[in-house]
User: What shape does this take?
Amino acid sequence: MRSRFLRVQKVHPDFYIEYKNPSLNPYFYEIDVCPSCGFAAADTFSPGFPPGTKAVIEQQFQQWNKQDFNKERTSDEAIRALKLGVLSAVLKKEKHVVIAGLCLRLAWIYRLEDREEEEIRFLHQALNHYQLSYEQADFVSTQMSEMRILYLIGELARRVGNIDEAIRYFSRVIQHKNKAFEQKLVEMAREQWYIIRSQEETVASQ
Assistant: This one.
């Protein structure tokens, strides 16, 4: 997909980019699916396979019926491709930060489709993997900074209703030692923190 044809409509607080033309959506094509074996991968996957994972993957996909994803995709096809990507990433033992990103993209496509229950389901999964990534520091040496992962954990926690947790992680961003280098994230965290506080005050006054 050529980037010059993409026009941004809105950027959501969890970094979901809403495009003016919904039929031109790069999220639909982030996963490559092998039509012969079913294994799916993204650019964020590591190049090698840990010992024993190839055999596990072959076992998992032995009943695969040949399918061709190398064409224009519908949202349902994009969802299937991403789910294959998540499965493949888990079997291949990819980093939690990689799996989290795929789950988040699934949530975004469900948001596009107004399927809230499924969106929340995958937001929970993304949140869980981002937390594991932060705890195990497997995001180090990727494009994900510590402040960005802290912010994402806070925002995803807010979206699934874990308000205390969201406040805790937003506060970590606001007080982070590197806040001078990622001021936009600090501003976003502060804005979301204020939204939570104002909502709590509104509820308390009722």
In short: The first strand starts at residue 8 and ends at 11. The first helix runs from residue 53 to 60. The mean pLDDT is 93.
